[in-house]
Every structure is written in C-alpha cells, then in structure tokens.
Design a protein that fits this description.
five-stranded parallel sheet; FAD/NAD(P)-binding domain; Fumarate Reductase Iron-sulfur Protein, Chain B, domain 2; alpha/beta; 19 strands; Alpha-Beta Plaits; globular
Length: about 575
Amino acid sequence: MTITAPSHINSASQEGIVSPTIHVLIDRCAGCQECIVRCPTQALHMDPVTWTAVGDDQLCVGCRQCERTCPYSAIYVEGPQLVAGRVNLETVHPDQLAFDRSETRRAITTWHEALDEASRCLDCPDPTCVRGCPAHNDIPGFIKALRSGDLDEAHKILRRTSYLPDVCSRVCDQAVQCEGACSWSLAGSSPVAIGALERFIADNAPVPPIEVAESGESGRVPRVAIVGSGPAGIAAAAELRVGGADVTVFERDDTPGGLLIWGIPDFTLPEPVARRPWKHLVDAGVHLQTNHGVNADELASLTEDFDAVLVAAGASVAMRAPVPGADLDGVCDATEFLQAARLAIASGTPMAALAPRAVNASTPGDTRPARVLVLGAGNTAMDVARSARRLGANATCIDWMDRRFAPVRPDELDEATAEGVEVRFSTTLRRLLGDQGHVNEAELAETEQPKASKRPKVLESKTSRLQVDMVVMAMGYRVEADIAKLGGDVPVAKKVQGLADRRWIASGLLANPAPPAARYQPVGLLALGREKGEAQAAYPRGKRTWFAGDCLVGPSTVVEAMAQGKVAAAAILASLSAGEPDGGV
C-alpha cells in the first residue's frame, strides 16, 4: 500500500520549507529493515548492494520514527518536523460563572477543523498512539475514515474497542495516553488532537444502541452479576450482553454511573452524556438494581446464584488527612461535596445552603463569599474548587508537593485559575481550628521538595493561618478493605519487571519516554504498566469471581476501567463457554 504524505506537508515543501536530512551510519546498519517498515512516508528503502538503509530527504517529514525504532542507533534525522499547527481548542469560560453548567472545553465543531486536524495524522504502520490508549482504539483507522468524510465508519471503528467514546473523549488525560504516544509527540512536536477528533465523531454520529446476541441453540443463558455501575461495570455489562449473557448490576447509589455521575461536574461531562451509557444498557436488557450495596458477605453468596460475578465497585473510600480538627463540622470529603454541589448548581442553591456557617451570623449584613479550602491539587480537587466557585464561594487548593513535581494536569490547573481558584503548591495542612464545633480556621505550613523522588519536608517554622468556612479533602481514594480482601493481592501494581515484550521495544515507544507534550511523563512505561493491569482483569480472583477497574488496580482513569471491564467480560464469556464451573481456578 502506498502511503502519501498529508496535503499540508506537500504544500509546505512546495513553498520552499527545508526538508529534514536523514543520516544512516552504514557501519552500524545491520539491514534489519525496522526503520523501513515503520516509516509512514516511505522515505527509506534498502540499498540492494550494501543491504543498508537509504533515506530520501524529499519524502521525510521529520517524525523520527526511524531513530526510535532502530535497534543499533544507526540512523538519525536533522532538520524540521514538517507538520501543520494543532487545532486551537482554548477553554471557554462563561461570562457569569454562578450556577453555570455549560461545558468549558471547546470541541471541534466544523468539518473544516476536523479535516485539518485529521490531516496531521501520519497513519503510522506501527501506531504508538494505539499502544498509548488503554482501550487500544484503532486511532489511525477512525481518523482515516474521518478524512474520507465517513462519520458512520469512524464511529463503527471506535465502537469495536470503546463503549464510552463520548465520555472518554471529554475526560481522558490524552496528554499522557494516546496523544502523548503520538509520533509527533515523541518527536517533540504537538501531537494530533486525538481526543478532540474522537469527540467530534461521538457528538456528530450519536452512539448507537447495543446489539444483543440472540440465544444459542443450547437454550441456557448464562447469568452474570456485576457489582458497581461505573466505567468498568458499564463496559462489562455491554460486552456480556453482546455475548448473550443475562446481566444483573448492583449499584449502591440511587443513580447508576458511579464516578461519571457523582465525581465529574457537568461543566466537564454534561449529564446527558454521563447518563447515556445506562440508558442504552437498560434498553439492551441489563437488569439494574440501584440502592443495593453489596458487602463482602453478600458478594460471596452471589456466586451461588449466578454463573459468574464481576466486582467493579471502584475505589470509593475517600482518604482523609489525619490532622487535629478533622472531625469538626464543615469538614467533608470530595465525594460528599461533589454530590451536594452537583444538585446545588443544577437547582440554583447558593453555597450558604451547603455551608450554613459561611456567613457570620453575629455580623448583620455580612454577605462575604464562603471560603472553601480544598486539600489536594489533582483533578478531583480542581473539580471541587471549580464547583465551589460556581456556588459563589472563594476556593483555595493546597498541595504539599512542589509545582514542578506535582501530578496535576496543566489544562485543569489553567481552567481552575482562570475561574478564580487560588492554588498553593508547597503547602500542607497542620491542623484545623473551630468555633462552637464548626471549622473556621486552618493552620498551614510551607514545604520544600528538592527532587521528585523525595518526599516534601514540612517547614515547621513557616506557618500561616487561613480563615475558612468549609474544608474538602480531595486527596484520593482507596478500595474498601473487605472487598479488597476477597480480591487477594489487590490493588495490582501496574509495573512490569524485566525486559518489555519485543513488539513494544520495536515500536519505539519506550525509546523516548518523556516528551514535552506528555508533561515529560514516561508514556511508554505508563502504557506498559496499564497493560499489566488490563491483563490481570482476565484472571478470576476467586470462585467464579473476577475484578476490574479501580478495585483491581487502585484509583486510575475512566478509560482504564472501561478497558479492564471489557477484558474481564470477555474472559467470563470464554470461561462459561468452555464449561469451567469455577472460572478456571
């Protein structure tokens, strides 16, 4: 198959832009052809006499895949990367922030924008972006369909691997996943806006209903129970229904969706999008039992009533800082706050209803905004702070890590600060003080962290006081202890020991692990670690019992949980089809 360079590259060359220069070190080249089979523009071929690689500078676009894939460091490229600029998707903030639920992350809205961005894709023969995506979406495939103007085909390709394209395209941290693993990212340029293109497809070609398989001639339909209705449970339920299983899902809350419903505000994930998966699942015949939490004892009994059980309960126990005053009124965790704030924003209820002590009752006419302190600076903390701002409160986030090393998404940090959230790094909480049992002051201390590998050191002599009306602990989550015990050695560490698989090494993704577009994160190693977690979802962890999502690997991402749920469901179907009564244990 002949692969032609995108039109913007050809036009750039015609305008006199200097081509990259390919250098082949003949004394090192072993003629293995790794560079040739992976070059997306056919800029390399073999010299039949010397049996070494030869480069054609006029066809080279400077993506440097050849450098990353050569096992002998026998090739390098000098010169520019011939790629057009990335589509501009700046965050749009409402003029009036109060109670606003509109999405702030701009989407690609026109075919012109979509085609311009899609043309930046090199359609790599060994696409590292697919390895960077936990769901292994066929990214070059759906982009190629998009370039041909076929939205239905693009969506069909997406649906092979993703049950949540409309969700993932909005909430994924693409910078350290698919986009971080894009060839342009690995070369030091701006990656293709994969998430924006996925969202364009999902928004303009609505997600189709689930196609349920007809019952086989045997007549017996396997019955599977799923505990938890979040991303892992959604993907597993859909995959099982496609495979013809009878599925019952148990959810402790009154609304299914897990994190998608209670953990992500409307301005990031609109409610209709968050609710869409479960509408499709119920329409496909999934039995949903809400307000039905499953404890460890009941979980064990489910294996007597169902042919298989999948635990997809997530990591729902909020971590709390062990500081004096943490038990005061007005101190809560992120889950509690986000659930209340979601309803308050939707109904136009002010912050005073959530923080009754927000206004000093002893001072008539005091209408100052409520003051909310958020512990943490991750995505959940930013969601809390931005929600508080929409309720009319002042919000301050603190994180004890140095800004250079904190695992915070720059886009979320920028969004929060643009909306008036104050973020203080190198700051920790020492204690909380109260008045008549309600928190009203926080004592903070500065920290220092010279290296990312070192824990921050608290500077006890550098303290300050902050007046607060509410404190929200958004420091992360862990799995319920009783559920974790049933899973054995969970959470599974997402680290691979020893040498990586030859196919991963040959892809070049591990050769350049820290591109600027990925916040200098080792995208290859992170992707390889996610593969381990996904593989573990295929194995039963007890009698006819599988685990998937956060309860398997600890707090992770929506797309990881979805991918693991899909893998676990496929393993369950395979086990039941093979007639293994105990899941192969």
